[in-house]
Amino acid sequence: MSLPRSRFAVITFLCGVTIGAMGFSPILFSGNRSSLALAQQPESQKLDLASLQAEVERLKQVVPDQSHAMQDVDYHVTNLWFAAGQSNWPLAQFYFNETRSHLRWAVRIIPVRKDNAGREIKLQDILQAMENTPLKQLEEAITAKDHEKFVAAYQFTLTTCYSCHKAADKPYLRPRIPDHPASAMMNFDPNAAWPQ
Ligand code: HEC
Questions:
Q1: Which of 3, 31, 49, 125 has its CA 20 to 30 A from that of 84?
Q2: What is the mean pLDDT of the chain?
Q3: Which of 63, 161, 162 to mutate to test the pocket of ligand 1 (most atoms within 8 A of CB)?
Q4: Measured in angstroms, how far is the CA atom of residue 165 from the centroid of ligand 1?
Q5: Please, what is the Cα angle at 72 between 69 and 73, to 5 degrees?
Q6: Mind listing the pLDDT tens digit for each residue in 106-134?
Q7: Taken in order 132, 134, 139, 141, is the CA torsion positive or negative?
Q8: Residue nearest to atom 11 of ligand 1 (CA)
Q9: Ligand 1 atom with minimal separation from the 74 CA
């Protein structure tokens, strides 16, 4: 369909006005002004490479260490045992997810460690093997709400936790089935009334 010539001219004119206005919009002006302001900054205030490196160093010092991330794993996987023990499967799924994501986080913090012979141990590979089998079985047991499978998969998981500790030359870090929850305030009972 062809537009009448006059309407076409009006539309073309309006488009021109809009594009023109955009070109001279205050947004673009302020953009130009800020880059101008940057150029006029005193030399001492400019973000140079040395100060950027210093900032990266500072940030490295405030990032939590691997042992901190592992304490989180300890917390989540301990609570997981009690959530499943009380058949609180949604809570068990929550603690399972947290365990897995904190294990991944721990491995991102230090991806490679040395064994006692000085050889490099890729923690990511060990975690991948753990995710492929024991953690997969653990999640399947939670989904199936199956206590027996859960206990077997949990024990298998702890065995692989320990395998990694041994591989990373820390055989004294021996996890075991927990005897009390890591959280003192979380209610593991799925049928608990609220407020208590
Ligand atoms: C891929 C390797 C790997 C896996 C898997 C792993 N860990 Fe660790 N874990 C480590 C390393 C390495 C350290 C020592 C960190 C350090 O020295 O900073 C550690 C330390 C710990 C600590 C001591 C933290 C502290 O400072 O008190 C606990 C507790 C722990 N792990 C629990 C677990 C549990 C539970 C699992 C299994 C659910 C697990 N870990 C799986 C590598 C692993």
A1: 125
A2: 84
A3: 161
A4: 6
A5: 90
A6: 999 999 999 989 999 999 999 999 999 99
A7: positive
A8: 165
A9: 35
